[in-house]
Design brief:
Elongation Factor Tu (Ef-tu), domain 3; 2 domains; 2 helices; about 170 residues; five-stranded antiparallel β-sheet; 13 strands; SH3 type barrels; about 5% helix; six-stranded mixed β-sheet; mainly beta
Amino acid sequence: MTEMVCVGAIAGSYGVRGEVRLKSFTADAGAIADYAPLCSEDGTQSFEVRITRSIKNGMAARLSGIDSKEEADALKGLKLFVPRDRLPALPEDEFYYADLIGMQVFDTGGTLLGEVRSVQNHGAADLLEIRVAGLSNTVLLPFTREAVPTVDMAAGRIVADPPEGLL
C-alpha cells in the first residue's frame, strides 16, 4: 500500500447545506483541494473538494457526496489523507514533517540523542520533539540550521548540536 500523508481534517459542519469546516495542513491552505481526491486513513471514504470561502480557523468547503448538515456533522474529526507520491518534490533543505518523524537524532560526536516524535510549530519556528534515548521524557529542539546542521534523509538520521543545557 502507498504511504499516506495527512493533509487536513474536518472540524465540523458549516451552515445547513452540507459545507464543512476544513482545517488544512498544507503550506498554502487553499492548495489542499489540488490534492483531491482526499480520503480517510483507511481508504473507505474519498472526497473531491471545492473550497468555498475562508473562515475563522480554516476554510469552508464542499465535499463530494455530502449534501446536508447532518452528513457534514458526521464527518467531524475525520482526518484527510493523500498518497505520499501525490505531494510535490521539495527543494534541498526543505522537508515534510511526516518524513522527519521516527528519524534518529545524533549529536555532532555521533552519540545517539533520541528519536523524533513530532514536529511542532507554535508560531515562532519549527521544533523537533525528541524522545531522549533511554528515557521516557522528551525535549523540544529548535529546528534551525544552528541546532540541526544535518538532515540525512537517505540514512534516516539527523545530526544535532543542541543548545547548552538542553540535554
